[in-house]
Inverse folding.
């Protein structure tokens, strides 16, 4: 189990965008359970998925990278991975 700083960012942005987990999953070509795992911090967002995720959530991709960097600095796993 991991504690992610990025998960709540994804969840909040998804809700503000008016999307369900299933809708975001379909747009990202992943399973709904993957979005749930991202939001709970149990799975990392793959680096190649960041631009698409950012576009779908109308966010600057640097937000995701900054959260991942903060997690590394804090010794927290989760966030963005290879």
């Amino acid at each position: 189990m991991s504690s992610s700083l990025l998960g709540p960012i994804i969840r909040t942005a998804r809700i503000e965008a008016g999307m369900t987990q299933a809708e975001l999953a379909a747009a990202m070509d992943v399973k709904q359970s993957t979005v749930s795992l991202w939001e709970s911090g149990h799975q990392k967002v793959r680096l190649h998925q960041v631009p698409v995720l950012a576009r779908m959530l109308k966010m600057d991709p640097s937000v995701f990278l900054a959260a991942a960097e903060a997690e590394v600095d804090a010794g927290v796993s989760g966030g963005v991975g290879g």
User: Anything to note?
Assistant: The chain has one domain: 6-73. Residues 6-73 form a domain with the 434 Repressor (Amino-terminal Domain) fold (CATH 1.10.260.40). The chain has a mean pLDDT of 87. The helical segments are 6-16, 21-28, 32-40, 50-56, 61-74.
